[in-house]
């Protein structure tokens, strides 16, 4: 089965650079990713973030990309589902309109929020994010798939109404969630939804457990768009012409991202019971922030090296039964991101999905030809 490749960005802007310019660079990166064979572009949703991360309105970017691209699919990674961030009906409306304008290229992945900075700014209660996400997804499905719908729940009560317009894809675009706990993997599976699985630097064994948990519990939703499990993994990527070049350019940005995570998740674990599972992965988080060998070789989250090295690293993940990989190409200047997209498109994607078009040594081809003559 073909492995799907995603370009994932949080629109991170370098110190001293312009947020406005960075947004235009992001569009150029997404357009180039389509040219280089990526299957989808995923944008994070982050609000009032400190530092360079600035993807505050990805739904606006998708509308623009719908006109700038023709093939690549558009996928939030993720839309925040607490009501104070995004009312579920507004999410359904935006999804439907952008799906129409992109000629059926939208997808929808949901999440709860993972920063107290954003939660407190929008008066979001951490203890309610999980139930609001799950109820909001149920409301979205009803609104998009039925002519006239109504909904009654703890957070949403909608009298008989009609969503106008409805999405081009029927019954609705692919929907999934970002899953970082055992419970979330089981929920996505039992709902017949796609899953974006993240082990939060806890290692290969934990990632394998999550993959098995999702696939073993998956049940087809007869009213939904998926006919089989769909599991993707976000991967932080550093790539260069050589292993040393990749390490020189990416080691500090990749470890810094892990340090940011180390700072955020322990606080969340103390706020609400639904986030307690974050505390179980603190050892991996702390090692990833300080130990380069652990981050690249053992955390199950990060690829770094030459194209040949990245291919070897990625083959391990593919062997685990993954359907999609999302390469986090961010945290470095625009020119380096474009170079990374170019190398992924030239070397990584063809290796997995178009091997007959990859140039091989002449002797290897001749030996195969001679072997076929003798047979």
Automatic annotation (TrEMBL):
SUPFAM superfamilies tied to this protein: Bacterial luciferase-like (SSF51679)
Gene Ontology CC, one term: cytosol
Annotated ranges, domain Luciferase-like: 4-324
Superkingdom of source: Bacteria
Keywords carried by this UniProt record: Monooxygenase, Oxidoreductase
Gene3D superfamilies: Luciferase-like domain
Molecular-function GO term, any one: monooxygenase activity
Protein name: LLM class flavin-dependent oxidoreductase
Species this protein is from: Pararhodobacter aggregans
């Amino acid at each position: 089965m073909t492995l799907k490749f995603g370009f994932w960005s949080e629109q991170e802007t370098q110190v001293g650079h312009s947020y406005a310019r960075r947004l235009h660079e992001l569009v150029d990166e997404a357009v180039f990713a389509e040219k280089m064979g990526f299957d989808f572009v995923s944008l994070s949703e982050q609000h009032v973030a400190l530092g360079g991360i600035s993807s505050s309105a990805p739904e606006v970017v998708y509308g623009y990309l719908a006109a700038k691209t023709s093939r690549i699919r558009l996928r939030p990674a993720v839309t925040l589902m607490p009501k104070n961030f995004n009312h579920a009906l507004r999410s359904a409306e935006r999804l439907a309109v952008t799906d129409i304008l992109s000629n059926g290229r939208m997808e929808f992945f949901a999440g709860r929020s993972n920063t107290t900075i954003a939660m407190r700014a929008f008066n979001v209660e951490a203890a309610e994010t999980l139930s609001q996400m799950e109820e909001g997804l149920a409301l979205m499905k009803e609104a998009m798939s039925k002519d006239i719908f109504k909904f009654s729940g703890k957070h949403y009560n909608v009298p008989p109404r009609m969503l106008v317009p409805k999405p081009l894809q029927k019954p609705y675009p692919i929907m999934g969630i970002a899953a970082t706990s055992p419970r979330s993997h089981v929920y996505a599976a039992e709902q017949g939804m796609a899953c974006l699985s993240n082990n939060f630097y806890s290692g290969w064994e934990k990632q394998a457990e999550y993959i098995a948990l999702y696939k073993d519990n998956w049940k087809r939703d007869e009213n939904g768009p998926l006919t089989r499990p769909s599991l993707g993994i976000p991967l932080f990527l550093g790539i260069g012409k050589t292993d040393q070049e990749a390490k020189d350019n990416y080691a500090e940005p990749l470890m810094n991202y892990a340090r940011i995570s180390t700072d955020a998740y322990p606080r969340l674990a103390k706020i609400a019971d639904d986030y307690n599972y974050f505390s179980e992965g603190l050892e991996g988080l702390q090692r990833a922030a300080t130990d380069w060998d652990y981050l690249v070789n053992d955390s199950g989250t990060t690829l770094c090296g030459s194209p040949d090295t990245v291919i070897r690293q990625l083959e391990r993940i593919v062997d685990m039964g993954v359907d999609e990989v999302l390469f986090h190409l961010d945290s470095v200047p625009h020119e380096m991101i474009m170079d990374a997209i170019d190398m992924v498109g030239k070397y990584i994607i063809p290796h997995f999905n178009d091997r007959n078009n990859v140039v091989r040594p002449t002797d290897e081809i001749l030996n195969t030809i001679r072997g076929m003559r003798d047979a």
